[in-house]
């Protein structure tokens, strides 16, 4: 097979990239190791930032999300029997998230690509990326090989594209001293909004998804496993840390999420670019992962269109530097929020909780400090992430 851009991975990053390139007249192929049914059913993120939606809208990819998604502009912090509402919609001057599950967006993006005549190669695993220092890199898959001008690795945290980078590329990792149990739950009514509960027994969080599905998070010990979390314990801990909460009918998915962050630097070598989780991993604290993946894809698409259609190599040369500046800003925000939500080990919880409540209350008080947080959280304006 021969194409201009070979894209590895049909997650949000790979699919946004493929759509934008196709609409700009750049030929591309997407290779995905899973089946179409699998990627369209994979429930993960669900909060789309203001700028992410603006990007999707600009490229004609937001139709269904705008009609079926729900706008959301506040989050509640619970701490020491207080509930503090941060109305980030108002504090940011009217910007909001859209609640729209990742798997619905993935489905929409595959459909949109199909309308442009491109069908990802599903159930085809990429085994290696070769010759990225030449003008004809190649992507070796299970049963075929793709020769192309550029390869974009959108293959997530465990993909193969990162391995093709020379050793000089640094992965800057960070491991937090706890993990999160992430629980997808069927509920009797939609979660009213995003809730973060900070307490001596550990953090708990609730994120809306659909009318009958919500995602919950429970802080657990680093290295913990699902086996230690039978349904009864999950329900007990959710009630203990997060009451009031909707009635939980069933728990279709329970996983331990290792709480780690990492960034690969730089994001490009020769004819290989990285985008999305292949380039960086964030904790889910600020709901940034999918948004940053889509922002990377939009940046890579712009650089490739300029390089391939207009012969302007400058944008490709600038891709890594531009994206890394923003990626580190978003990492810093997610890290700051995560530290607010957890008590430092060994510190007297009475003091640590008072400190956190004071910090949370500042986020709700109109003024520059709260406005800056609101813009970063919702991804709007100069302070945004997407
Ligand atoms: P992915 O979505 O991981 O897509 C990569 C694709 O590459 C996959 O389809 C994979 O099958 C494919 N692939 C991998 N290796 C190969 C190979 N060798 N050959 C071919 N294909 C390959 N983010 C948020 O913004 N908000 C949230 O609330 C949020 N919650 C989350 C909850 C959970 C439980 C999880 C797991 C993640 C969450 N995230 C959240 C993170 C978000 O889902 C990711 O950041 C996002 O999926 C990244 O998109 P991506 O396209 O870069 O990678």
Question: What keywords describe this structure?
Answer:
FAD/NAD-bd_sf, D-Amino Acid Oxidase, Chain A, domain 2, binds flavin-adenine dinucleotide, oxidoreductase, FAD/NAD(P)-binding domain, 2 domains, 386 residues, 5-stranded mixed sheet, 7-stranded mixed sheet, alpha+beta, disordered C terminus
Radius of gyration: 21 Å
Overall shape: globular
CATH superfamily of the largest domain: FAD/NAD(P)-binding domain
Strand order of the largest sheet: 6-5-14-15-16-13-17
Q: How many runs of DSSP E, i.e. beta strands? A: 21
Average pLDDT confidence is 95
Whole-number count of domains: 2
What kind of sheet is the major sheet? 7 strands, mixed
Contiguous helical run count:
11
Helicity range of the residues? 25-40%
Bound molecules: flavin-adenine dinucleotide
Question: Structural class of the secondary structure composition?
Answer: alpha+beta
What does this structure look like?
The chain has 386 residues and is of the alpha+beta class. It contains eleven helices and 21 strands. The chain has two domains: 191 residues, FAD/NAD(P)-binding domain; 82 residues, D-Amino Acid Oxidase, subunit A, domain 2 (D-Amino Acid Oxidase, Chain A, domain 2, 2-Layer Sandwich). The strands form five sheets. Strands 6-5-14-15-16-13-17 form a seven-stranded mixed beta sheet, with helices on both faces. Strands 2-1-11-20-19 form a five-stranded mixed beta sheet. The protein has a three-stranded antiparallel beta sheet with strand order 3-7-4. The longest helix has 28 residues. It is globular. The C terminus is likely disordered. The structure holds flavin-adenine dinucleotide. The site of flavin-adenine dinucleotide (FAD) has 36 residues, from helix 1 and helix 8.
């Amino acid at each position: 097979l021969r194409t201009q851009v070979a894209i590895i991975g049909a997650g949000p990053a790979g699919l946004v990239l493929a759509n934008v390139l196709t609409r700009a007249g750049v030929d591309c192929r997407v290779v995905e190791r899973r089946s179409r049914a699998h990627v369209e059913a994979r429930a993960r993120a669900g909060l789309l930032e203001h700028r992410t939606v603006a990007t999707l809208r600009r490229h004609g990819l937001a139709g269904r999300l705008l009609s079926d998604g729900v706008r959301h502009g506040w989050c509640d912090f619970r701490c020491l029997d207080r509930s503090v509402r941060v109305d980030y919609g108002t504090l940011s001057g009217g910007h909001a998230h859209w609640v729209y599950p990742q798997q619905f967006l993935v489905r929409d993006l595959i459909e949109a690509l199909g309308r442009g005549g491109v069908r990802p190669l599903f159930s085809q695993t990429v085994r290696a990326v070769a010759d990225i220092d030449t003008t004809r890199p190649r992507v070796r898959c299970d049963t075929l090989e793709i020769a192309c001008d550029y390869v974009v690795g959108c293959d997530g945290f465990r993909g193969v594209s990162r391995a093709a980078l020379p050793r000089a590329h640094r992965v800057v990792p960070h491991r937090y001293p706890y993990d999160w149990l992430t629980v997808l739950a069927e509920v009797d009514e939609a979660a009213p909004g995003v809730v973060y509960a900070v307490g001596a027994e550990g953090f708990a969080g609730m994120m809306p998804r659909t009318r009958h599905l919500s995602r919950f998070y429970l802080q657990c010990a680093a290295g913990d496993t699902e086996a230690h979390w039978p349904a009864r314990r999950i329900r007990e801990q959710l009630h203990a840390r997060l009451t009031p909460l909707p009635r939980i009918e069933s728990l279709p998915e329970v996983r331990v999420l290792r709480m780690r962050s990492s960034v690969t630097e730089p994001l490009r070598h020769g004819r290989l670019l990285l985008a999305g989780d292949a380039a960086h991993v964030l904790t889910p604290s600020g709901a940034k992962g999918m948004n940053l993946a889509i922002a990377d894809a939009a940046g890579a698409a712009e650089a490739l269109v300029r390089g391939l259609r207009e012969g302007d190599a400058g944008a490709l040369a600038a891709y890594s530097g531009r994206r890394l500046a923003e990626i580190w800003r978003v990492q810093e925000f997610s890290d700051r929020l995560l530290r607010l939500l957890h008590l430092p080990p060994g510190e007297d919880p009475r003091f640590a909780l008072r400190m956190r409540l004071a910090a949370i209350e500042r986020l709700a008080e109109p003024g520059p400090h709260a406005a800056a947080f609101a813009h970063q959280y919702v991804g709007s304006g100069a302070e945004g992430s997407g």
